[in-house]
Amino acid sequence: MSFFKRLFSSDYRAAVAAEAAGNVELAAERYGLAGDRAAAVRMHLARARRAPDRTAEIAALHDALHWSDDDPELAAAAAAALGRALYARAVAEGIATARDRERVREAAALLTRGGDHGTAGDAWEAIGDHQAAAAAYSAAGMVEKVEAALAADGERHEAERTRRDAFADYETSLRLGRRDDARAALQRCVGAAGDDAGDYRRLLDDLEARLITGGRLQLGRRRGGTIVVCAVPVIALGRDALCDLVLRTAGVSRRHAEIEVGAVDDGARFMLRDAGSRNGTRIGGLPIAGRVPLAGTGELGLGDDLRVAYATVGDDAADHHRPVALHLTVASGVDRGVQLLAGADGERLALDPVGVAADVVFADGRPWIGQGRARDLVVAGERVGSGRVQLIRGDVVTIDGEELDVT
Q: CA 129, CA 115: separation in Å to the nearest integer?
């Protein structure tokens, strides 16, 4: 701005007076009206230094950048100051969302424009763009930081490759019914994804909540009827929801009776005992004391009103290739018709006694279903051939056209 323009400009004189009085905001406004952009930028920068908070500082720096467009040197100073303020605010508030990262990118671009390449490199690194950080550090002559950023970029690429491979393994394992393998693949995804693991963590939490690990599988028939298949050391019978065979009948205690699986007393694999019930346990109408072997067929009485039919399966010489199993059927009460088939962990349990052609093997408490005698087996929409599928809660199993829900 020329000397004569200053001399005759009332805005300029007002700006000088406002600056002398310490009113930098008014001075900036008047310098701008007088056309002295450099002085206006200087006043806006002074506003930023005196700002009471970060928001006011950033507003003042935006004004400084606006008035500096025609002067590269002023524009660089204003851009660098604004970039530092924006980056400081992002760090203070946390960089967690896509919007936060976009703000840091804006700050890094301003810092680069202003020539503060070192701080620009820090900003790029804060959002994981190590290549951009390396370029910024290189412009600043910061050799060690360039090498560190390039090494971090290599690690990021390796983590991304690991994440992609792990997710592909997850999808394949899920499709093949290997749910434990799918879980392990998701755990690798979570580890490789770092701060972006939210979606994988949700998938993992959902899968872990659906895994069956306690040696007990419940199948619900669409046409009615519940089938419990289990391979546990002790089968609990009673009203408690944690029992293996839940019996909601008056007179039945919370944990009424227990059946030991795998016992060899007197050659029997299943031993019945009362669990301290209030109304006692009977076989063939006679109350039991101590442990009583279950073999062949018969009927249990729990309390006064509940009857449960039992049969041991596969314990004759003609059928020695099939492992011994115990089949229980609730014959009276609210849960009439509920069936339980029990055996040992690791042995194949043919589901024929409960009217299903497939078979189940428990491995460390996890149920794996196989085709058995079924002509057609479909689990979660995938047809099962000669292999086995690990069942989880929520699966729909179709066996020769009949649908059963895993609950």
A: 19
